Amino acid sequence: MQAAARAHANIALIKYWGKRDSALNLPATGSISVTLDALHSETRVCFDPGLATDQVALESGGDPDRVSTFLDRVRALAGIDTRADVRSRNNFPTGAGLASSASGFAALALAACRAAGIDPSPAELSALARQGSGSAARSLYGGFVEMQRGRDDRTGADAHAVPLLAAPEWPLAVVVAIIDTGTKAIGSTEGMTRTAASSPFFDAWVSGAEADLTAMRTAIEARDFERVGELTEHSCLKMHATMLGARPGLIYWQPATLAVWQTLADLRAGGLAVYGTIDAGPQVKALCHAGDGDDLAMALSAIPGVRGVRISGLGPDAHLIADPWA
């Protein structure tokens, strides 16, 4: 009753921010993302009848209780009550706005289900991962991925991700400018709750989502990089405007965040095809053509306040691996 899995972080182009049901972790809107091959989580799950409680070791940090709660869902599906030994690690900073919960819970979902002896369909596995982290539903797939909002508010079964375009079908690069590796003061769940409850812009954010999703699907299908980039930046700025309108306002950006954003605009004006996006954290992710990643990374690494850069292509589906701790 043991399995290990690797899943990759994803970066939303059309953003997800806000829940319509916290108990089922149902998103208020759909979203579209790209999966990154350079950022991943590895998780091993071993169900052991000799354990009285779950033993959870998260090498990069995290909440063991949240993992145990998720394992309860897997145990219910498998019809077992066996406790588990879980080990997990990331190859990038945790809780810093780089989607560590997405890759972490996607890897946990896949490893735990296989270790428990169940094999849910891709849609069922994605919906299960969503209950650990909303963005984890997308990290089960590679390339371009859409998270469907769904309409079933009773079970949430139709709120899951679907693949749009596999990574090899449109090779692009994402350069991540890392500005702060520390854990953010306001986590995404708390930030979403505050925004939905107090921002006067939240209803407009939700009502505009379907048009953004439709436009992005069309742009991806046409391989229209400029349109994809424009939609990405527009969704990012709308999300942060909504967050700024909360009480108190949510400000995840740091001075270097703005410096990177301005540099991307300057580079684009100079002829480099590059567009940025920012999640709930200070890091900036820049989307560019595959051959431009090195030059872009060099330009961003020279900005004061940027602690490092990571260059990534688009990543694969989550998959089983040999035990990394063997």
Automatic annotation (TrEMBL):
<dbReference type="InterPro" id="IPR053859">
    <property type="entry name" value="MVD-like_N"/>
</dbReference>
<dbReference type="InterPro" id="IPR041431">
    <property type="entry name" value="Mvd1_C"/>
</dbReference>
<keyword id="KW-0067">ATP-binding</keyword>
<feature type="domain" description="Mvd1 C-terminal">
    <location>
        <begin position="174"/>
        <end position="291"/>
    </location>
</feature>
<dbReference type="GO" id="GO:0004163">
    <property type="term" value="F:diphosphomevalonate decarboxylase activity"/>
</dbReference>
<dbReference type="InterPro" id="IPR005935">
    <property type="entry name" value="Mev_decarb"/>
</dbReference>
<keyword id="KW-0456">Lyase</keyword>
<dbReference type="InterPro" id="IPR014721">
    <property type="entry name" value="Ribsml_uS5_D2-typ_fold_subgr"/>
</dbReference>
<feature type="domain" description="Diphosphomevalonate decarboxylase-like N-terminal">
    <location>
        <begin position="7"/>
        <end position="155"/>
    </location>
</feature>
<keyword id="KW-0547">Nucleotide-binding</keyword>
<comment type="similarity">
    <text>Belongs to the diphosphomevalonate decarboxylase family.</text>
</comment>
<keyword id="KW-0443">Lipid metabolism</keyword>
<dbReference type="Pfam" id="PF22700">
    <property type="entry name" value="MVD-like_N"/>
</dbReference>
<keyword id="KW-0444">Lipid biosynthesis</keyword>
<dbReference type="InterPro" id="IPR036554">
    <property type="entry name" value="GHMP_kinase_C_sf"/>
</dbReference>
<dbReference type="InterPro" id="IPR020568">
    <property type="entry name" value="Ribosomal_Su5_D2-typ_SF"/>
</dbReference>
<dbReference type="Pfam" id="PF18376">
    <property type="entry name" value="MDD_C"/>
</dbReference>
<protein>
    <recommendedName>
        <fullName>diphosphomevalonate decarboxylase</fullName>
        <ecNumber>4.1.1.33</ecNumber>
    </recommendedName>
</protein>
<dbReference type="InterPro" id="IPR029765">
    <property type="entry name" value="Mev_diP_decarb"/>
</dbReference>
